[in-house]
Design brief:
Length: 349
């Protein structure tokens, strides 16, 4: 049986339509494949870190945009100053900021820092332009030239970043387990007190005991200074609790009077880790510091009243060429003058 002649053109038309549909489908699939491949190639790297305390997955930035970083030197207080200064100056100059792996290792175990971490091979292969900073903000830092800038020096002044205080406090917000340990320790000191006020004390000693008189013509905090600072808070608050941290705890136990039952030496009077000590200080209501960036940052994060050792060098000290008290200590902080007489007698420490 043969098909009627009228079906022949219809069948040819169907075959042509199916052929065209196949061509269009193939073209559409090829277009999708090309777009998907191009999109995958242009996606940014996901191996960045957002402050994890673990070994950081580093990032390889898009170098066309340039990048800024900062040297990672010295101890915790210096590292915090360097980080905060990089954060502020990069934002001020509309540049992308990255930190070195060494800085991440120092800060990430404590804080929710967010600046991404450069990989070591990227650090070594970038043609960095070193830009040295002095310790405080200057107008020229608002207009730093260069795509690949590494800030150097030891910046330690609120004048760099205080206009971004809330952002800086967020960067230096503690991990939950760090907060919980500090608050648990402080709660254990409350006892029967109903209106307790915690005052953190940081006594910087260590190498400063000889560096200050021998190199900088200055002194470290003595017994009389700490008695005055503690007396200030005892007179002002009904039930103060003083928490002493130091890298010279033996000296502290011998020179700080704990007979009134309101002074406690952290770690049962033994030296603790810098991170643990810093968390305790930052979770107190107020701060007594002596000298050094560790104490400055403790006071800045605690946010209450801060008492500091003032005028602790002779007027001709070379230290005053690199350090200015007015830009190191916030204006509302309270300075108590140091006793400089040991510099004349030679009996420092």
């Amino acid at each position: 049986m043969t098909a009627p002649d009228s079906w022949v053109p219809f069948r040819q038309h169907c075959q042509l339509s199916l052929y065209l549909l196949a061509i269009m489908t193939f073209s559409f699939l090829m277009h999708l494949h090309c777009r998907f491949f191009t999109t995958r190639q242009s996606l940014p790297s996901l191996n960045t870190t957002k402050g994890s305390p673990a070994t950081p997955p580093t990032t390889t930035p898009t170098t066309e945009q340039g990048m800024w970083t900062v040297n990672s030197t010295r101890r915790l207080g210096n590292q915090m100053g360097e980080y905060a200064t990089l954060y502020a100056l990069a934002k001020m100059n509309r540049r992308l900021a990255y930190i070195l792996p060494e800085m991440h290792q120092q800060l990430a175990p404590l804080f929710h820092i967010t600046l991404p971490v450069l990989s070591s091979d990227v650090v070594q292969n970038i043609p960095w332009k070193d830009y040295e900073l002095h310790d405080w903000m200057s107008e020229e830092y608002r207009h730093i030239e260069g795509k690949y800038v590494q800030l150097t020096g030891y910046p330690c002044s609120w004048t760099f970043y205080h206009h971004l205080r809330q952002e800086i406090l967020q960067e230096f917000s503690f991990h939950d387990h760090v907060k919980e340990e500090a608050n648990r320790y402080l709660a254990g000191l409350r006892g029967q007190r109903r209106n307790v006020t915690y005052v953190g004390i940081h006594v910087r000693r260590g190498d400063y005991v000889w560096v200050m008189p021998q190199v900088w013509k200055g002194v470290v905090a003595d017994k009389a200074y700490l008695e005055k600072a503690i007396g200030y808070f005892r007179a002002k608050y009904q039930e103060p609790v003083f928490v002493v941290t130091s890298n010279g705890m033996e000296w502290c136990r011998e020179n700080i009077d704990a007979s009134q039952g309101d002074v406690y030496f952290s770690g049962d009077g033994r030296e603790s880790s810098p991170g643990r000590d810093f968390a305790l200080l930052a979770h107190c209501n107020h701060t007594i510091m002596t000298i050094g960036t560790f104490g400055i940052w403790a006071g800045y994060l605690a946010g209450g009243e801060t008492v500091y050792l003032a005028n602790y060098t002779l007027p001709n000290s070379p230290f005053l060429k690199i350090f200015k008290a007015a830009v190191a200590f916030l204006p509302q902080w309270i300075g108590i003058d140091a006793d400089l007489s040991p510099l004349q007698s030679g009996a420092t420490g």
